[in-house]
Every structure is written in structure tokens, then in C-alpha cells.
Write a structure and sequence with these properties.
five-stranded mixed beta barrel; two-stranded antiparallel ribbon; alpha/beta; elongated; 3 domains
Length: about 325
């Protein structure tokens, strides 16, 4: 198995979704090819979480992906760089470095035990490397102890120093995660027989194709008739949707097939929503079905619509939906 290591859930979110990874505990996700671990920020978080994973799973290779700050203004934002050698600074430099598996043109990086929020701190670290992060040195140390090959790829998110805005970086988590996934998919991946791959029935983006590939593989392993299943889903997709919306609708439906609990939840919600659909209204839930709320949507073009909404209040019981959120998904 290969291990994917991220510092933050925001950076990992597109990998979890598009590679069809399933939760195996707090901050740990699995499929048959990968283990994905979210370590948290800082070297001490890495030591706490990564060690047990390396001991439990048969990891052949490890990959660290995430954002890093630039310490030199010649480095472009949004560029990707592979890491060659990683150093560490914990108030003072640690005289132990690790050279990772890498291709040519890789850059060095220094891991800081604290956030780099001043230009003085950034300048001090720039004497060691042109890039900075918070975790890689600890990851490299543990992988070195287990003789596990490690490669690291960093997306440059900002210039480290006084201009760093941590809140702004959190707001960009989805954007960073998408870019990291698209970059990752250009790297060498486990090869599968071409005969086993199914081409998408419609145009899809790079990340949509990756999600489609992972879902089709998962469904095939369950011995379901994939072609018949896909055809039924496509017949139910509204013709007025855009190409992107149709692709997402197909992917969301396929994901339900791979997640029996989520499918049962949706089926139960559809049944409870019948009184609303009968008057032309729609109940909209979040995609994960985890948030205990929904949106009631209805076009009002007649007094009768308002009267029907008034009657709907007597038929819809929020407590019935709460039971489903609390685990009662028997249909």
C-alpha cells in the first residue's frame, strides 16, 4: 500500500472524495491501494499520529502533499516543487537532515516548529532553504527509521513572513486540494488493466474523471452490473442540466451505490419528503446528509401554492427527519 500524508483535512478533502477512500478512524482513510493520514499541524502532531500508522500498515511508499511558504521572492505562488532535502528549526537549527526520493530540479525545505509570521523569522530560515512548512522533517524522520521511501510535493501558497494570512489560507482549502489532486494524478499511479477501465459516458473534468474511475472500480468489486446501473442513473438525470451538472449528478448517484448507509438515508429522506414533492416543493439536504437541517424550495406563482404550503406544515414532522440523522434508516 502507498501512504498519502497531509497536514490538514482541507488539503486532503478532494483526495478522500475522488479516490473513494473510506474512514478507518479519526483522520485515517483507506481503500485497497492507499492509506491516507491527516496528521495535524506541527512536528509533534506528526510524531503522535504517523508512527502508529507506519507500524500497523504494510506501507511500501509514502507521499507527502500539501502547501508550503516561499522564503525567496523568486519562487512563484501556485507553483509545485518536489522536495530534495528537508531541515528543521525549533528555535535553533537541528543538525539532522533527510534527503528524500526525488527527481531532478527538486528544492530544499526547512520545517519550522512554529508559524512563520514575521519577516525576521522568515529571513532567518531562508539561510537554510527556499521553502518552509510545519511537518515534513518529522515525516521524513519516521519514514527513515522504517526505511520507507518518501517523496514530497509542495504547492506554494504564500510568501512566508509578515504578510501571511492564515485565515485566508483556510478559505482557499478547497482550491488547494483540487490543485494538489490534479497534480498528483499526473504522477505515477498503480496501473490497472485497460480492459477493466470504463470510459465516462459524458465529458468530464480531470478531477471528475478521477472520481469516476475510483467509483467504477469500487462498484465492479461489488459484482453489480455497472453498465445497467449507470444507464438507469443517466435516464433519471434531467436534460436541462449543464454538462458539469450532469457529470456531478452521475458521480453523486454512483457514490450512493458504494455507500449503503448513505443510500438508505437518502431513500428514507425521499420517502419523508413525499408530501412536499406532491405540491411541487423540494427538500434539499447537504450532500453528506450529516447536517441536521434542510432547505424547503418552492416556486410561488399562485395563492394556491401558499395554501398548500400552509397545509404542508401539518404533514412534515422535523422529528421524523431527526430520527434518520440519529441512525434510524430502516426503509
Amino acid at each position: 500500500m502507498n501512504l498519502l500524508i497531509f497536514a490538514h483535512r482541507g488539503e486532503a478533502q478532494e483526495f478522500i472524495k475522488n479516490l473513494a477512500l473510506k474512514s478507518a478512524g479519526k483522520d485515517l482513510y483507506l481503500n485497497e491501494d492507499f492509506v491516507l493520514l491527516i496528521t495535524g499541524e506541527g512536528i509533534y502532531e506528526v510524531f503522535t499520529k504517523l508512527g502508529p500508522v507506519l507500524g500497523e500498515y504494510p506501507i511500501k511508499k509514502a507521499f507527502n502533499l500539501g502547501i508550503a511558504g516561499a522564503l525567496e521572492d523568486t519562487i512563484g505562488l501556485d507553483d509545485f516543487h518536489e522536495i530534495k532535502t528537508v531541515y528543521c528549526h525549533t528555535g535553533r537549527p537541528l543538525f539532522q537532515s533527510f534527503t528524500l526520493d526525488h527527481q531532478k530540479d527538486a528544492l530544499d525545505l526547512i520545517t519550522s516548529d512554529e508559524r512563520v509570521l514575521s519577516n525576521t523569522h522568515a529571513m532567518k530560515l531562508s539561510n537554510f532553504a527556499p521553502l518552509v512548512d510545519r511537518e515534513l522533517w518529522a515525516i521524513a524522520k519516521l519514514c527513515n527509521e522504517k526505511s520507507i521511501p518518501l517523496r514530497s510535493f509542495k504547492l506554494i501558497s504564500d510568501m512566508a513572513g509578515g504578510a501571511t494570512d492564515c485565515f485566508d489560507l483556510k478559505q482557499k482549502a478547497m482550491e488547494f486540494s483540487t490543485k494538489l489532486l490534479e497534480f498528483w494524478l499526473t504522477l505515477e499511479q498503480p496501473k490497472h488493466s485497460e480492459d477493466s477501465e470504463v470510459l465516462p459516458p459524458m465529458p468530464m473534468s480531470f478531477t471528475q474523471k478521477a472520481r469516476y474511475k475510483a467509483l467504477t472500480k469500487s462498484i465492479k468489486l461489488s459484482d453489480l452490473d455497472f453498465k445497467a446501473l449507470e444507464e438507469n442513473i443517466l435516464n433519471d438525470i434531467g436534460p436541462s442540466l449543464t454538462a458539469k451538472q450532469k457529470a456531478n449528478a452521475l458521480l453523486d448517484s454512483l457514490e450512493l451505490v458504494t455507500n449503503p448507509v448513505k443510500l438508505a438515508t437518502k431513500t428514507k429522506f425521499d420517502k419523508l419528503s413525499t408530501p412536499a414533492s406532491e405540491i411541487g416543493a423540494k427538500l434539499i439536504f447537504d450532500k453528506s446528509f450529516e447536517k441536521k437541517k434542510f432547505t424547503l424550495q418552492m416556486e410561488i406563482n399562485d395563492q394556491k401554492n401558499i395554501e398548500n404550503l400552509s397545509k404542508l406544515a401539518d404533514k412534515l414532522k422535523f422529528s421524523d427527519f431527526e430520527k434518520v440523522w440519529n441512525g434510524d434508516v430502516d426503509v
